[in-house]
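Forum: Protein Structure Q&A
Topic: Joint prediction for protein chains with partners

I've read a bunch of threads here and the consensus seems to be that you should model interacting components together rather than docking separate models afterwards. I'd like to see that in practice. Below is the full input, 420 residues plus whatever partners are listed. Could one of the regulars post the assembled result?
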Amino acid sequence: MPNLKALRKRIATVRSTQQITRAMKMVAAAKLRRAQEAAERARPYAAKLAEMFEAVAAGVEPDTHPLLARREERRIDLVVVSSDRGLCGGYNSNLFRHLAKFVRERAGQELGLVVVGRKGFEYYRRRGTSIVSQQVGILTTPPATMAAALAAEVAGRFEREETDAVYLAYNRFRSAISQTPGVVPLLPVAPPAADERPVDYIFEPPRLELLGRLVPRYLEALVTQALLEAIASEHAARMTAMGNATTNATDMIGALTLSMNRARQATITKELMEVVGGAEALKG
Amino acid sequence: MANTLKLEIVTPDATVYSGDVHMVTLPAVEGQVGIYPRHVPLLTRIVPGEIIVRKNGDEQFLAVGEGVVEVTGDRVAIVTDMAVAVKDIDEARAEEARQRAAARLRDKISDEEVATVNASLARSLAQLRVKKRHRL
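Posted by a regular:
Agreed with the consensus. Here's the joint model:
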């Protein structure tokens, strides 16, 4: 028979855990909304830059800028955006699983990882994957600052030919209940297909100088956008995970309360029987 | 539509301006340029300075940072790292940022950092200059 006191203690524990998960869920929900707005606000900037990059780069040869140079992909870098903290459900493991597939498909290429987030660093260090560098503080550093640092780092490696291509892996934000891991090519920056109706712009300064200015900015905007989306995804994943935990705690409290009441009833019944039995015995 | 321009100013944080205007003046690398409707297609870089937006005889002033401008017949798109309307410029904060950047430049820092600090210095200077010019 389950013991009454232990059951009561257990219920109290579950209840206090539930308080924590509920609070975390609400915090994540509030942060999610802000993160979503930030991603929303940054979108026109990236879109406009892409448009201008297209206008400038349309038709230029890929070897006109070091970051556009296409080489045989013998060594690739992968920027992985994971979280610093856990309690966010499958946020990290989904991404790592997706990446395992990506890496398998590219067996034979030398891989270097640029890891954002403590979870990713710990995971890949354990598996002995070669890590080029790592950063923490995705939720505390301004995304633009972190993106600038990341972009400068991979651009430098690419220019020095320490890597032939750079990919960016993060959890894309689809909605508050759906985030899907994805990998996008970052470098070389893809020169867009030549426009069907090339507008004859006057370029000031000359086209190539302008291109030189635009490419790093464009790269930064791409990374910023990815970071903002990853942040929104992390909050969304945490919100869902903590919501589930809160529901599970409710179920658990229900089940425990039931067995506690049953145990209490059983004790009362037993005592009653003893009293009646005792009285019966005295009568006789 | 033929005598207005669709002006859009976007920064990494927000779309600062979006609307139809009659004329806009920009601090291009090669000097101040005025854009009227039906301007020839132009792609140019802008430097920290002042944007003047004219609409129905009304003038609006903004401080801008580094950026790129795309002009097509009836559209002007400005992508920049900073754009603040003159009424929103916080002089004290800009001054503080200017001093912080200037102080940082005196330290020993890497070339890359010099570039970023210089950019932020130029941004705060642009804000201060624009604010000063339009003080009543």
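Chain B has a mean pLDDT of 87.
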